[in-house]
Every structure is written in C-alpha cells, then in structure tokens.
Amino acid sequence: MRYLNHINGEWVTAAREEYKDNINPATGEILGHVIQSAPEDVDRAVQAAKAAHKSWRLVPAPERGEYLYRIGQLLKERKEQLARTLTQEMGKVLVEARGEVQEAIDMAFFMAGEGRRLAGQTVPAELPDKHAMSVRAPVGVVGIITPWNFPIAIATWKMFPAIVSGNTVVWKPASDTPAMACEMMKIIEEAGLPKGVVNLVYGSGGTVGNALVEHPDVNVISFTGSSEVGRTIAAKGGQLLKKVSLEMGGKNAIIIMDDADLQLALDGVLWSAFGTTGQRCTACSRLIVHRSVQQEVERELVRRAQALTLGNGLDEHVDVGPVINRSALEQIDKYVQIGQEEGATLLSGGQIAKGELLSKGYFYHPTIFTNVSPTMRIAQEEIFDPVLSIIPVDSFEEAIEVNNAVAYGLSSAIYTNNVNRVFRAMRDLDTGLVYINAGTIGAEIHLPFGGTKHTGNGHRDSGLAALDVFTEWKSIYVDYSGKLQRAQIDNHPK
Ligand code: UN1
C-alpha cells in the first residue's frame, strides 16, 4: 500500500520518490509506505488551494454545508472500517477508535448546520438612513497540521469549520498515521467536493510543515502537536504576520477531595490516565488527592491498574493498547528514571511489557508514582504516555493551587460532593476544560476545545469558536441617505 499526496483532485507522487514505512505499533507489521514531500509539493498544493478558493468562496454557505452532510454520512457508513484502520495504525483500542470516528461524524453534522447560520451582527447605526452589520469573511488558504493521537477527529475540528466558512485547505497529517488521512481524503473525494478545496500533503521531519508556515499564500496555520514545534510555528508565523492557532500540551490533573465518591473517582482516574494509553493531550497525568483518602485511593488504583489487559486493540478484551512508536517507549523509560532520581515512589509499572506477543509491539505497563511533589519534573512536564503522578495535599485550597502551578492549562477535574467546592473549582481551575465529578478526557465537539497558558495561544478548536480562527470579521456600513454624513460629528454637533 502506498499513500500518495492528493492535490487538485488527484492522487500524485512527490517531487522525489521517497517513502517512509507505516508501522502497526501493536505488531511491528508494516502497513504501507507513505510518500515524503518536498517544499515544491507544498507549493503545488497551495497553488491548487488558491485557485479553488476563487470559486469556493462564492458557493453559498448552505451549499458548502451540504458537502459536509455528505462527508458525515460517508463517515457514518464507514465507521467500523475506519475504526479498525485507526486501531491498526495508531494502536488505540477499538471502542475508543469508534469513539474517535464518532467525533468526526459529529463535527461534520455540526459544521454542516453552520452553513445555514455563520451569523454576524446587524446593529443600529449612529446616523439616520445608514445600515451597520458585521459578517464573517473567509481568510483564503488555510494550512492545517494535525497529530497522530486523534488523526481523524482533530483534522475535522479544523478542516470542517475552514471549509464551511469558504476557505480552501492544505492538510499535512502526522507521519505516523497516513492511512487515516488517506481514508478521509477518499471520503472527501466521494462526497464530490470541488477539486483543490482540500489538498493532502504527506511528509515528516518538519519539511512540509515549515514550507506551509513560510508560504506567502497560506493565510492561517492551525496546528495541534508538541509545544516545541508549536513555538517554532508561532515564531515564524509572528514574523510573517500570519494568524496561527496552536493547540499543544497538557499536564492535566484530577483532584480527589475527602468528601468524594471514591469508586466514581477511581473510574475517572483510570479512564483518563490509561485510556488511549495516556496519549491524549487531555490525559490525566497528575492525581491530586486529599491525604485522608490517599492510602485507600492508592491501594485500589494500583489493584485496578494491574488488572488492565495490555494488547492489540483489535482484540475486544484488551483495555490498553501500545504506545505509538519506539521513541515513546524510550521517553517513558527516561521519565521513570527521572521520577526515581527525584525521590518519588514507584507504585506500579515502570517497565516495558514482555512476553511473546507484547514484545513485537510497543507496550509499557501503566505506571504510577506516589509521594510526588508538585515541582518535580514528572509533575511538571508533559510525558504523553501512561504515567500518573500522585500528589498528596491537605486542603481544597492547596489542591487548586497545585492544579494551577504548571505551565499548561488544558484540562482539569475535581471529584467532590460539596456544592461550594464545585462552584469554587469552576471559577478557580485555570484550564480551558473543567470537569466536575468526571475525568479529564471526553470533550464534546460543539464546545470550544483548547487551553490557557502554554497549552495554546488564545485560539480554540471545535465549537463555534473555531470559526474565529478561519474567518475575519468584516464590518460593513451602507449609507442610503444620499448625502455626506460624518460619523461622530454630524450626530454630535457640539
Ligand atoms: C487530544 O487529546 O488531543 O477530550 C484530543 C478528549 C477528546 C479529544 C482529545 N475528545 O479527550
């Protein structure tokens, strides 16, 4: 299987015929070969998108929305097949893969409806016989750069609002998940989207991403990925006065208070820390627990974490799939060592999984550290893998303070049955997503998704907020008085 670029409605190879393997992280098996593009391939795609934008911007928005309904319908029909492909190339277990495809379906239908809204404002004018309003105008060509952990859902959070509001797209998917991008592109083609509206360019190592960011005809970059890459994009984009929307890391915590329903809280912690093998930007990697329930929580958590079944996500009995690649295994090992050197206590896991089947893939035992202090590196740095740090605290106030004392601000959660604490937490947890009596993962597509501080740069994916990334506000004044009317002067003569 070869994954090719899709530019101006056609599957094409790149300037140089170089390929990289696509590997199933559960088995080590090679699934296919993905083309490696050069800056000239990006330029071809941008030119195609630019040409397509001339007519796409004039297609009535409800009609643009119709294409999204069709895409949503195709995603729905192919949900099971897409989920299986997703599990094979990314590793998440099948139930979660189905959930991710569902997110893409939801996003298609949500943004399709937006084709009939795209609301601006009509407001009174200061002067007589004058009309004032604001409308959303497309920005032109949009570059989207998406990660491997949610290869289809996150692409739709960006692509669908961009398309419905009249932009055209050049999409660079993550190099670890080319098959999902290919499947998505096939669906876009089948839905009959005019050629050049969405173009797909594969690459790795920053070549394609850089070319997109630097291309003078790309007006907006929307990126989800590591903070390191995000910073580089922000710096380049800033220099070029480009609008850049960044969605980066998290160091998300769940707080368990002394008055919490502990069984419910443990369900939430297990799901948030080890679901998707900890590879969500919303994953819970810190557990802030009130000291009076610490022992009980730890005992039960370790028991339940050790009962999780590791394996190939296609097997419905498996709870935890592999991590994405070999360097992820090395990354976990590095942090396990750091945690031990820092003086944290390793409660569970801390090693690569062995055994005939598991050693073919990239499997790591879910890992739990306790007696972690809030300033340790394992409590501060995003690991993006199944590693949980337990931080004991003595009060609600301390819990909130510890939650907020990290560079990131994506998701946080609290388990408590005290209504005053609920409302204080809603106000004081400094993250873009806040959960009450639920874990840190599972955001819904019709609300804004993103975070404060180093998680992002003030923009949001998903929800109606995503439209702000892909449109410019245009304020329009129509003077039908037939004479010169001077605003702020003729209506205030003195
Ligand atoms: C991500 O981890 O990058 O809220 C996205 C969630 C999912 C999306 C996660 N709906 O956990």
Please describe what this structure looks like.
Belongs to the aldehyde dehydrogenase family. One of its GO terms (molecular function) is aldehyde dehydrogenase (NAD+) activity. This protein has 494 residues and is of the alpha/beta class. The chain has helices at 39-56, 61-77, 79-90, 94-114, 153-164, 178-190, 207-214, 227-239, 262-274, 291-306, 326-342, 377-380, 396-404, 419-428, 466-470, and strands at 2-3, 5-7, 10-12, 19-23, 30-35, 121-123, 130-138, 141-145, 168-172, 198-200, 220-224, 243-247, 252-256, 284-290, 345-348, 367-370, 387-393, 408-409, 411-415, 433-436, 452-453, 471-479. Strand 2 and strand 3 form a beta hairpin. It starts with a strand and ends in a 15-residue tail after the last strand. The model has no long low-confidence stretch (mean pLDDT 97). The structure holds 2-aminohexanedioic acid (UN1). Residues 103, 149-150, 280-282, 441-443 line the site of 2-aminohexanedioic acid (UN1).
Helix content: 25-40%
The N- and C-terminal alpha carbons lie at a distance of 76 Å
Cα-based radius of gyration, to the nearest Å: 24 Å
Low-confidence stretches: none
Instruction: Please give the largest β-sheet.
Output: 7 strands, mixed
- Count the DSSP helices: 15
Task: Give the strand order, joined by hyphens, for the main sheet.
Answer: 15-16-17-14-13-19-20
Domain Aldehyde dehydrogenase: 11-476
InterPro entries: Ald_DH/histidinol_DH (IPR016161), Ald_DH_C (IPR016163), Ald_DH_CS_CYS (IPR016160), Ald_DH_CS_GLU (IPR029510), Ald_DH_N (IPR016162), Aldehyde_DH_dom (IPR015590), ALDH7A1-like (IPR044638)
GO molecular function, one term: aldehyde dehydrogenase (NAD+) activity
Keywords: NAD, Oxidoreductase
